[in-house]
Design a protein that fits this description.
The chain has 2 helices and 8 strands, in the order E-H-E-E-E-E-E-E-E-H. By secondary structure, the chain is α+β, with helices and mostly antiparallel strands. The protein has a single domain, classed as Beta Barrel (Lipocalin). Strands 1-2-3-4-5-6-7-8 form an 8-stranded antiparallel barrel. It comes from Haliaeetus albicilla.
């Protein structure tokens, strides 16, 4: 559920067929992002910081819409609609299925910078199911 999303997450790994993301994943060394309550119940604010090669990049607050009926987060940036569907969310682990310009991706994030071998294997199983 969405209340469990609030707070800080560490990006662990991901797979994508969206060319800008494939390029980004190669150079991102570390990423952390935080969800905060938005101005109403259908909105979340997210802030993220990442290390790209040797440079730190901070993205200021982005507004994300919550589509409750299908457990999806939506973000519109320069007319490009990105959505992320919650595949799995518990208090420690977040697996999101992303669509950017209708191209599929999957990401694994966690409350700590390291995840267990079991969690990684579970994520890899999701990746295989989606054809990565």
């Amino acid at each position: 559920s969405f209340p469990q999303l609030l707070g800080r997450w560490f990006y662990i790994t991901g797979g994508s067929k969206y060319p800008p993301h494939v390029a980004e994943m190669k150079v991102v060394k570390y990423a952390v992002f935080s969800f905060f309550p938005g101005s109403h119940k259908d909105e979340l604010n997210v802030t993220e910081s990442m290390r790209v090669n040797e440079t730190c990049v901070v993205r200021n607050t982005t507004k994300i819409q919550i589509l409750w009926h299908n457990s999806t987060l939506m973000h519109v940036d320069d007319q490009v609609v990105s959505t992320a569907e919650l595949i799995q969310s518990d208090k420690d682990l977040l697996i999101l299925k992303h669509f950017n310009a209708n191209i599929l991706g999957l990401s694994l994030s966690a409350r700590t910078p390291n995840v267990s071998k079991e969690h990684l294997e579970e994520f890899n199983a999701h990746l295989r199911c989606l054809g990565f």
